[in-house]
Amino acid sequence: MNATMxxxxxxxxxxxxxxxxxxxxxxxxxxxxxxxxGGGGYSQAILKxxxxxxxxxxxxxxxxxxxxxxxxxxxxxxxxxQEKFSNLNxxxxxxxxxxxxxxxxxxxxxxxxxxxxxxxxxxKNLLNMEMGINKYSAxxxxxxxxxxxxxxxxxxxxxxxxxxxIANKIDEYRRKKPIKTSQELALIINKAKKNYNYYKKNPATxxxxxxxxxxxxxxxxxxxxxxxxxxxxxxxxxxxxxxxxSLEDKIVKNFFNLYSNIEKNPSRYLPxxxxxxxxxxxxxxxxxxxxxxxxxxxxxxxxxxxRYAIRNSNSFFYPNEFKNKFENYFKLESGKI
Length: 337
Ligand SMILES: C[S@@+](CC[C@H](N)C(=O)[O-])C[C@H]1O[C@@H](n2cnc3c(N)ncnc32)[C@H](O)[C@@H]1O
Fold this sequence. Notes:
15 helices
């Protein structure tokens, strides 16, 4: 992607598409839920097989135009909702019986490249970082959030050891004038990080990740989205998640471990169906990663981790243990502005 390209010229290469297709086997038909429609790469590849139907959602209203073209092409087999995947139950009927529910987390190439959204360090537009259907923007977070709270967000959601130093520098700056653009914010962070010239990545990378996660409540979304997916799937249904950073992967790994009884199994020796505390058969004990070809097409694939599991026929039970495990993320992301 280069700085002079228009959004129309940018291509989003779906990450690990071949892995996803070989897991869900769309050639056998069935209904699929694409929870992160983006540029429609996965949905389109599934719809190429005539016996398939796709219900897709995305929180970003800009994805609607890609959805419109698929709705035109496949009016009886494709439907799109602009919605957050934590609200999956609002748009999907309980008895839909999907063959697979797919999450391909994070940002699409279109969102990253759109300077107006402010996801990139060079953006001179007003700080935004919203994926869609948000309560507040990065501008609100950076300029109004309590200094200690900001430090905690940067430290925990960005895994940034210098969270406090960075929050202090931000606070110093905003006392004089508001921080308006992503570029301005990146420069403030660069000054706060010592020896930043030696960093391979831009030194603002982790802080930007933290603020983006907070603005979009991404971890809460993921936790609630996985729970909704587990409710919707019936016996044999597949749940696939492609994640891009360690916080996301930790949540996915824990979810599958707990609900396939890998981590704490009171009745490990019972057959799966008799074991009422399990909802899934975990297939990927270790995550699958992208091929070199995938990485060449889309550099984001470098950090992709794919995990999947197959739902059994046990009745859904509320996953308190899972929610409790990540209570801190809920609390952190629900901070009032
Ligand atoms: C990596 S892209 C998906 C790309 C897609 N698989 C493709 O092949 O084009 C991720 C998409 O998920 C959407 N998204 C992220 N979090 C979401 C959420 N909580 N609810 C709904 N959509 C979400 C983003 O807006 C973005 O368009």
